[in-house]
Task: inverse folding
C-alpha cells in the first residue's frame, strides 16, 4: 500500500437483518465494521470502514428490563430543558434511532466518527434502496448464539 491513499481503501457493503438481535451486541459489531477494525489495512485516523445496511430495526431486542427501565436523555440548552425517553417510546416512533444512538456512542468522538456514522444505513422494515450494491450478508447468529434472542 502506498502511503495509505484513499484509492487504496475499498469499501464493501454489508447487510444485517436485525430480527431478534440484541441491541448492544449488534451495535458493537457495527461500530467495529464502520471503523474498519475488521480489515488488515485499519488506520485509526482514516475512513477505511465498510458500509452497513441494517433492516428490520423495529424487531431488535433488549435483554432484561432495559426496554422499560433504560432512559435516553437530551438537553435543549435552556435551563430545566432536560428531556428523557425510553426505548419503548422510541420503538413506537423511530425504531432506527435506538440502534443509531448505540452505535454513535461506541464510536470515538470527533469529525471522523461523524463521517463513519454516515456509512450506516438503518431501515425499520425489510425493504431498502440499496439493492443495486453488492450486499454481503452478515449473519450475527452464526458469530455467537448469544447475539440472537429466540422468543
Result:
Amino acid at each position: 500500500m502506498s502511503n495509505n491513499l484513499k484509492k487504496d481503501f475499498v469499501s464493501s457493503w454489508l447487510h444485517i437483518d436485525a430480527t431478534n438481535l440484541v441491541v448492544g451486541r449488534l451495535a458493537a459489531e457495527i461500530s467495529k465494521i464502520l471503523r474498519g477494525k475488521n480489515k488488515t489495512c485499519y488506520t485509526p485516523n482514516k475512513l477505511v470502514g465498510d458500509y452497513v445496511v441494517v433492516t428490520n430495526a423495529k424487531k431488535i431486542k433488549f435483554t432484561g428490563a432495559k426496554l422499560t427501565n433504560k432512559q435516553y436523555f437530551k438537553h435543549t440548552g435552556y435551563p430545566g430543558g432536560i428531556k428523557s425517553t425510553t426505548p419503548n417510546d422510541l420503538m413506537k416512533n423511530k425504531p432506527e434511532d435506538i440502534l443509531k444512538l448505540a452505535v454513535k456512542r461506541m464510536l470515538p468522538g470527533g469529525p471522523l466518527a461523524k463521517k463513519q456514522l454516515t456509512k450506516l444505513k438503518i431501515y425499520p422494515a425489510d425493504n431498502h434502496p440499496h439493492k443495486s450494491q453488492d450486499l454481503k450478508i452478515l449473519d450475527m447468529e452464526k458469530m455467537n448464539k448469544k447475539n440472537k434472542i429466540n422468543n
